[in-house]
Amino acid sequence: MGEMDEVVKEFLVESHENLDQLDRDLLKLEQSRNDTDAIKSVFRTIHTIKGTSGFLGFSKLESLTHVAESLLCRLRDQTLSMTQEIATALLSTTDAVRRMLANIEATGADGDETDDALRATLARLNEPETADEAPAVTPTTPVGEILIRTGKVKPQDVELAREMQQEGDPRRVGEILVENEVIKPSELREALEQQAAARQKDTPVSETNVRVDVSLLDRLMNLVGELVLARNQILQFNHSLGRQDSQFTSTAQRLNLITTELQEGVMKTRMQPIGMVWNKFPRIVRDLANSVGKSVGLRMEGKETDLDRTIIEAIKDPLTHIVRNSIDHGIESPAERVRRGKPQQGTLSMRAFHEGGQVIIEIADDGGGIDPERIKAKAIAKQLITAEQAARMNEREVLNLIFLPGFSTAETVTNISGRGVGMDVVRSNIERIGGTVDIASRVGEGTTLKIKIPLTLAIIPALIVRSAGERYAIPQVNLLELVRLEGEEAVKGIESIHGSEIHRLRGSLLPIVRLHEQLRIEDPDGHRPDVINIVVLSADDRQFGLVVDQVMDTEEIVVKPLTKALKGIGVYAGATIMGDGHVALILDTFRIAQRANVVSESRERSRAVAEVRTTQNAVRETLLLFMSGPNRMALPLEQVHRLEEFPRRSLEQAGDDVVVQYRGEIMPLVSLTTLFATHETVGAPTPQSDTVQVVVHRHGERFIGFLVDRIVDIVDEDVSTRGLNPRRGVRATAVVHGKVTEILDVAVIARDTVATHEPVAIGGAS
Amino acid sequence: MTTNRQFCTFFVDDLFFGVDVQEVQEVFRFEPMTRVPLAPPVVRGLINLRGQIVTALDMRSRLGIPPRNGDTPPMNVVVRTDDGCVSFLVDEIGDVLEVDDAQCERPPETLTGVARELVRSVYKLRGRLLLSLDVAKTVAQCATAGAV
Predict the structure, then answer these.
(1) In this predicted model, which residue has the larger pLDDT, A419 or B99?
(2) Which residues 68-127 of B have a C-beta within 8 angstroms of A?
(3) CA distance A573 to A432
(4) For chain A, what percentages of helix, strand and coil (3-state, to nearest 5) are there?
(5) What strands, in cross-sheet order, belong to the sheet with A470-475?
(6) Which pLDDT score, from 0 to 100, does residue B10 have?
(7) What is the pLDDT of residue A63?
(8) How does strand A306-308 pair with strand A583-587?
(9) By C-alpha distance, which of A567, A566, A540 is closest to A434?
(10) Which among B38, B40, B48 is the nearest to A583, CB-wise?
(11) Chain B residue with minimal CA distance to A564?
(12) Residue A323 and residue A349 in contact, taking contact as beta carbons nearer than 8 Å
């Protein structure tokens, strides 16, 4: 019995593989109906299943495949030509066979499913008159076909040759053609070579392949992981020995080399071409398109792109969902397409390629695209966002709303998609394996989804950093650059704006996050204040700088999962064992960014929105909001040098003006309240506290301080809504956060100030 | 009918605990560990146990007992759970004891607090009580504590 089980198991495995091939062949046939190789392959598969199932006593399976086989036999012998109807029937047959196989796997019997209807269809299609409907069996001697395709001969010549064959001429078509002097022998040779090359591709590769249990590969992978750790330890040991023992050093280096190669090798065994998943799509696309009455052609590029099998598994469902969405919602009905002047058949293209250690998968359709206005309306109707938020979003942010939970744009819910459980799941599935998904769309032209996923999850390159005495690993995919500030730079390099720190990195503001603060750990040794190490990281489209005590090295690390309790914390992606045997935690930089409010802002639920905030939109500006007397004012953040707080008693009087000593200079202070005083509010800032808030602006070589009453916030705002004629010193009036705000024209104010204060400042210095 | 069970025993403060030997992977002396910032206080850190990463839980903290004075390092009792290996940091290791199920009773009413939830049953040994620790509960509730 045990032996029998083994045979059945083998049969199941083999048949499943064959059926996948079968699906592909049938679809190929539907497209080029005269692909004899495909027909033969289909025939062989069905024949094999029939034979084995007969031998194993699965009579139902045997009889169904028998009916299908007779039909295929005639297709192969070209007494019947391929039609869509036949293709559909054959595809249904493979489905029925699959169900039976599943039954066998589950219960050991081929089940009691009645497939009379299918059988009747197959039998009807196999009747002779069907063949008569399409009597003109096309000339498909491959050589003849190739010659016609390459324009060497006319179809009639081949036809003639075939007729001669049928009349008993023993020569082959090619020979007849050469002897009839239709083609030159060299041309025939060329065609034969092409044919041989084509056949080569189809030769079964079974001789060079061994089937290996996946769990064995996983085990090997684990062992290699251990080996990598041991190697790291030895290398470190060798390093600490200080190269005294040269033989040990060379052995260690060889071990290093071999381990690296072994690691790559084992990694490769787990790699599978993305085609493994994609192969199912021609069928899915065809069935879906038919069921919604659309015509969709599928183009696939980069099938051979390799991915770790665990990742392949993980992307299967998200991809299916995206494809379904494209066909269901994206591509228009044929009538609609024609009306819009597009080809009747829609195109769905899938493209996969490697880029920078990641795999990119693009799924594009040439359908109707996504109308941002409709998305907005929907999101507001579903209360995912407020109208106010919607108004502030740019197009990309709007498109990304479709990834919010509970979002579905389908006006009518179909059975294919549109249950509103879709895209958010797609996104979370992809993010779970460390990937990202992005969407771009143009109304009327189509939609493209771009998925970026890592090659493998098991061993990753990482940057090791130290913070508060503990080491942490940062996955290199998130790493953009390292910045080290020393001495004076370390003091001035990080500026504080209303409690949040920033660093100016080549002119743009980089939010600063201190790792030890985020992890709430004390600094036992106290980091050196004269050196600041900033690890610049990307979290979605945003960048932020993570300040650590020490940047150590980059290393290949083996990712080990954490227990549930620790996963719950959220900021760790796993743990790894370092060369010295100690455990180091792997940081989830995206979560840290979220924790530090670098990416998520304060809005709930609209993470998707916040993530994609970009500076594409030219009217968007980052503003420092503050109150000056009754006025709500703002300064572009880029014109703010620093925010300072001075004790009120350090303010000094120089002539009529208020100044303060600042960094070895005398900085004039401009009271905005006085400057923009209306008749009621003339006077100095109301003395309400012991300190004054000063916004420091650098005007050329000089500092100018603006006295403000209260700093409100820093906002990234669309300042296109303007009104009122601004007064002098005010560049524009805009609605910021729902309130009218004056955006100051610093240049004008500074010029006025410098003009009046210059002599005073000099006088003060003398 | 009586069945004998073997318990790996250990002390936490004055409490005498036992875990079925089948559940225990190994016992070893305190090892340096990597602390896990933001983790619940029960989680003392991560230990590398021959390439396996083990979460160390402080049993005193788990049971709500104040930390021990003095410098004696705790011992690790590594138990296997569904969620990987977990190490209990305990004061001291006892012998492996063979106990009779007939000696088993429900935990007494006098046992209160967290300890009561984590004790499955009590074995009346000569001169002392052996508390059978519910490993799953001990670990599981840490998980929820961690998520909070």
Answers:
(1) B99
(2) 83-84, 86
(3) 10
(4) 45, 25, 30
(5) A550-558, A459-467, A470-475, A583-587, A572-577
(6) 93
(7) 81
(8) unpaired
(9) A540
(10) B48
(11) B143
(12) no
Give the residue on A whose Cα is nearest the Cα of B42: A565
For the domain made up of A214-269, the CATH class stated in words is mainly alpha
For residue B11, what are the domain limits? 4-147
Kindly identify which residue of chain B lies nearest to residue A229, measuring between CA atoms.
B51
DSSP label at A452? E
CB A509 within 8 A of CB A544: no
Among A244, A470, A115, CA closest to B39:
A470
**Closest-CA residue to A624 (of A676, A685, A693, A677):** A693
Query: Who's near A668: CB < 8 A, 6+ residues apart?
Result: A657, A658, A659, A704, A705, A753, A757, A760, A761
What CATH code is carried by the domain that includes residue B71? 2.40.50.180
Phi-psi region of B24 (alpha: psi -120 to 50; beta: other; left: phi over 0): beta
- Looking at chain B, the number of H-run helices and the number of E-run strands are 3, 11
Buried b (16+ CB within 10 A) or exposed e, A129-141: ebbeeeeeeebbb
Q: Give B43's contacts in chain A (Cβ within 8 Å).
A: 565-566
Instruction: Answer yes or no: CATH 3.40.50.2000 is held by domain A620-765.
Output: no
Name the residue type at position A687.
P
A583 vs B37, B46, B145: nearest CB: B46
Residue ranges of chain A assigned to CATH 2.40.50.180: 459-611, 620-765
CATH code, residues A273-454? 3.30.565.10
Close Cβ partners of A654 (under 8 Å, ≥ 6 residues apart): A666, A760, A761, A763, A764
Residues 6+ apart with CB under 8 A from A199: A37
Q: Which CATH superfamily is domain A2-202 in?
A: HPT domain (1.20.120.160)
Which residues is A482 bridged to in the sheet? Answer: A535
Thinking of the domain A459-611, which architecture would CATH place it in?
Beta Barrel (2.40)
Q: Choose from A566, A571, A576, A585 for mutation: most chain B CBs within 10 A.
A: A566
Q: Tens digits of per-residue pLDDT, A296-349?
A: 889 999 888 888 877 888 888 888 888 888 888 888 888 889 998 888 889 999
ipTM: 0.86
Query: Hey, is A740 helix, strand or coil?
Result: strand
What residues in B contact A575, CB-CB < 8 Å? 34, 46, 53
Do residues A420 and A408 touch, judged by C-beta distance below 8 A? yes
CA distance A313 to chain B (A): 22
Q: Does residue B38 belong to the interface with chain A, where contact is any CB pair within 8 Å?
A: yes
- In three-state secondary structure terms, B69 is coil
**What are the b/e assignments for A292-329, b being 16+ CB within 10 Å?**
bebebbbebebeebbbbbebbebbeebbbbbbbbbbbb
Cβ burial of A703 (10 Å; 0-12, 13-18, 19+) is buried
Domains of chain B: total: 1
Q: Position A223: which residue type? A: L
Contact (CB<8Å) B32/A582 = yes
At position A519, the amino acid (one-letter code) is L
User: Where exactly does CATH 1.20.120.160 map onto chain A?
Assistant: 2-202
A583 closest CB neighbour out of B47, B143, B147: B47
Characterize B19-50 residue by residue with b for buried, 16 or more Cβ atoms within 10 angstroms of its Cβ, and e for exposed: beeebbeebeeebebbbbbbbbebbbbbbbbe
DSSP string, A14-64: HHHHHHHHHHHHHHHHHHSTT-HHHHHHHHHHHHHHHHHHHHHT-HHHHHH
3 state SS of B131: strand
Mean pLDDT across A466-470: 87
Judge contact between A367 and A441, C-beta under 8 A: no
**Burial bucket for residue A405 (CB in 10 Å: 0-12, 13-18, 19+):** middle
CA dihedral of residues A440, A443, A447, A450 (deg, nearest 10): 0
- Please report, for residues A91, A94, A740, the alpha-carbon distance to residue A720 in angstroms, rounded to integers and kept in the order given: 58, 60, 12
Read off the pLDDT of each residue in A698-723 and give the average, rounded to a whole number: 75
